[in-house]
Known about the structure:
Layout: H1 2-18, E1 25-31, E2 37-55, E3 60-65, E4 70-74, E5 90-104, E6 115-121, E7 129-146, E8 151-156, E9 161-165, E10 180-194
Antiparallel strand pairs: 1-2, 2-3, 2-5, 3-4, 5-10, 6-7, 7-8, 7-10, 8-9
Amino acid sequence: MKNAASLLVLVCFAMSIGVSALAGDYTSSEKTTAGKPSVTKEETVTAMATVQAIDLKNRLVTLMDEEGNTFDILVGEQARNLPQVKVGDVVEVTYYESVAVKVYKPGEVPSVSGDTSMVAAAKKGEKPGGLAIKQATVTATVQSIDKKNQTAVLKGADGKSITVKVKDPKNLENVNPGDEVVATYTRALAISVSKPEEK
Length: 199
């Protein structure tokens, strides 16, 4: 399972420096103190929906988005305040995702924490809401670089290698075989429910 997670984050690394920026994305590129590249790509999306129907027994909530589309969501047991939700309430969902990639000289990688997560829920009796954050950090070693084709081969701690296409050739400047890449993937989801505004 850990190998799969490592490969997933390395693929996220490939996406962060190898694909076009999407609308609403924020991408920054800078050099670390040793002149090695550092790239961050992040995106925040907020959506609103209105509660149309609630099936408490089956924990099913029907929502309508801002375009008038309706859809059902199955609410897990961790949402302990579901009975507080009423038809007409407004649900706001904010989704944040970022990938931060830094390149270090061999032996200069700081201590990395691996996977961490946090969940916070609304107090009992309040309108449902909460925050969930998950962060995964992996380290890979640069095996080879092809500046002509703008690719690099990275080897993860699990021993598997992946070839990544680098969009910006500047991100290959001062990168050498043996350098280490630290990729940190962060995902956060915040949900809140409020009463509709009075008109």
